[in-house]
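Look over both lines before class:
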Amino acid sequence: MNQRLEEARANASIPYDRYQQEFQQSYEKAPYYRDGQSWQDYEPAYKYGYDQYASATGRKWEEVKSELEQGWDKAKGESRMAWEQAKDAVRAGWDRLERAMPGDADNDGR
């Protein structure tokens, strides 16, 4: 695991296991939820957003979105979701870790 990812996780106020529980309890209520999709479909998207936020520290979502799309097929594991279905959950994972970090690391006002 890269050092920036470890530093970001160390500085995050919510460890991944708690973060995962929050999403697991609420993913079916998310505006992007699609009937017929399970936690096994959504969890890789949340984790991917969480993991990738740290490796893109200081960059905005819009700057990395196409890179994340290119990496989704490898990252998705057993998820049945294509990028178009998963991208909002990936963004939610990204945003959740960003909000846990001190300040506005990517200067997007969030």
